[in-house]
Amino acid sequence: MISVTEAAVLYLQTTLEIIKPTVYEGENVSRVLSLVIGAHKRFLAVHKIADELPEQLVGIFQTSSVKAFNAKF
User: Would you say 36 and 59 are in contact if contact means Cβ atoms under 8 Å apart?
Assistant: First the structure.
């Protein structure tokens, strides 16, 4: 079951503002992507996808220290 409370949505929005691959051991992009997908599902459930989400996601993944990875964005 997906939690769709306002508090859950606010928490996820805040998390997406601060999350970075460098926080996870080995810059675990899969972990970050999993969190982003989970947040997106909740946003869809409550029809609260922010207009700035695409730019926010690019910003998240550009924080990697792997230049080849960043170049994709």
Answer: no
- Buried (b) or exposed (e) across 31-56, using 16+ Cβ within 10 A? ebeebbeebeebbeeeeeeeeebeee
Q: 65: how many CB neighbours lie within 10 A of its CB?
A: 10
Q: pTM here? A: 0.73
d(CA 37, CA 69): 19
Q: Identify the sign of the CA torsion 58, 61, 64, 69.
A: negative
Per-residue pLDDT tens digits of the chain, which is 73 residues long: 555 677 888 888 888 888 888 888 888 888 888 988 988 888 888 888 888 888 888 888 887 787 777 777 6
